[in-house]
Design goal:
The chain is mainly α and 134 residues long. It has a single domain, classed as Nucleotidyltransferases  domain 2 (Four Helix Bundle (Hemerythrin (Met), subunit A), Up-down Bundle). 62% of the residues lie in helices and 0% in strands. The longest helix is centred in the C-terminal third of the chain and has 24 residues. It is elongated and about 45 Å long. The two termini are 17 Å apart.
């Protein structure tokens, strides 16, 4: 298996930029989803750098599956939990009891999601550098 972890991290950075642009454009549901995607892809990049196959979309679980020597903090896991809550309901009209996703997310959620994703992406970038590149 070739190491494509750099491509995964680059896409995570791109998704994070999309989150920022969506927030600026007041597309807060998309900002939250893109932030979740950025974190997910960044953590997968770390796994791939380690030569590991990984599946799933739960950022917290993906972080927990990393080797202990990478020392994922409880704070980072909590940030992942917040982002995990944005994976489905930001996209589907039946993700909430009523109302379209765009009605359920605002500036507060978008700002928080982007901040958490920035933290996770930065942590992943550092973890990859620690493991030889990135």
């Amino acid at each position: 298996m070739s190491d494509r972890s750099g491509e995964w991290l680059a896409q995570a950075e791109h998704d994070l930029e999309q989150a920022r642009l969506s927030r600026t454009g007041r597309l807060f549901d998309w900002a939250c989803f893109a932030a979740q995607q950025a974190a997910e892809k960044a953590v997968k990049a770390v796994h791939f750098r380690l030569g590991r196959e990984v599946w799933g979309h739960v950022v917290r679980r993906l972080l927990e599956q990393l080797p202990e020597d990478l020392a994922v903090s409880p704070e980072l896991l909590d940030q992942a939990r917040v982002l995990d809550a944005y994976y489905v309901p930001t996209r589907y009209p039946n993700g909430h009891p009523e109302g379209a996703p765009r009605e359920h997310y605002g500036e507060l959620q978008a700002r928080e999601a982007i901040g958490h994703a920035e933290s996770i992406v930065a942590w992943c970038r550092a973890a990859m550098a620690k493991r030889g590149g990135g």
